[in-house]
Amino acid sequence: MPPYPKVEAFKFHIESYLCDLNEQIRLASMVNYMLDAATEHAEKRGFGYKSLKEDNRAWVLSRLLIEIMEYPKNESDLTIKTWVDEVARTFTYRNFSMHDETGKAIGYARSIWAAIDMETRRPMNLMDWRPEMAEYIGQEENCPIEHPGKITPVKAGIYDSFTVKYNDVDINKHVNSVRYIEHMIDTFGLSFFKEKHIEKFEIIYLTESTFGDILTIHREERTPEEYVVEIRKGNTAVCRCLIRWKNKKSNKIIS
Fold it and tell me: Alpha helix (H) ranges present in 138-230?
């Protein structure tokens, strides 16, 4: 038996600086909590940041799909459960469930990760490096949302642009995965957030960008409720996301 449970729950208290004009946690803030939970879960079990750093490796988020039914409010508690769903040769799959103070599930997420060599920036073979990761696959836990799918490229021209600066870059010396999410969501005005909330957010990370890079943002409306946003470095797509909105005035789920 592994020394730690396969599924672990982590409790967070939502502070005001993490919330938006609706006094609800921002999606990017929730993603940061998810990454905190994933980091602590992996660290305890011997395949976290410290273990990778010793081998000159680093975890890189490849894909993330989140579906949120309710956003927790300021000064409330949020519990996030996380577990390994699958371990393949170069990718590991990690799931999440989010719960309010009563224990009710308010959201789910699926993510895909690669461990890269920090010198070559190439993925490494996980089964050679940490075969014991497979012992922590928690398939008894339910994650009832779809797996990440294909997001087709954006055909629209430049919507906005920015230069990668200090606050965009993380410990791995490239743009932090959550900063991309913030830049993409910032293409929407306050009226969106007053009338709707993000029900589904799916992102695929395609390549790295680093300090000083000039990135362009391209946004395309696919339906009145669904948008695709793409960040590019020159002609190369760095990441691409699909955002689906739900009208706050309706209980109907947008599909």
Answer: 177-185, 190-195
